[in-house]
Design a protein that fits this description.
mainly alpha, elongated
Length: 71
């Protein structure tokens, strides 16, 4: 049980550090400030999907990401 809890704590600390780094830079953590997703599985959809980032609505800003996700 100790191994699983230590892995869980490590993953949580890693995610918190990543979000803190993205906040310091002011960029969206989902798309890393690009405003769009690089990987998008188009073959699974019948309609033409939007390629802009759903987390920040394509702006690439951390402030828009926090408003969109509520974090």
């Amino acid at each position: 049980m100790g191994l699983f809890s230590s892995i869980k704590e490590w993953k949580k600390a890693r995610q918190e550090k990543y979000l803190a780094d993205m906040e310091a830079k002011g960029i969206c953590p989902d798309c890393r400030g690009r405003g769009f997703d690089l990987y998008y599985p188009v073959e699974y959809y019948n309609t033409t999907p939007s390629v802009e980032c759903p987390g920040c609505n394509g702006s690439g800003l951390f402030s828009d990401w926090t408003n969109q996700t509520g974090q």
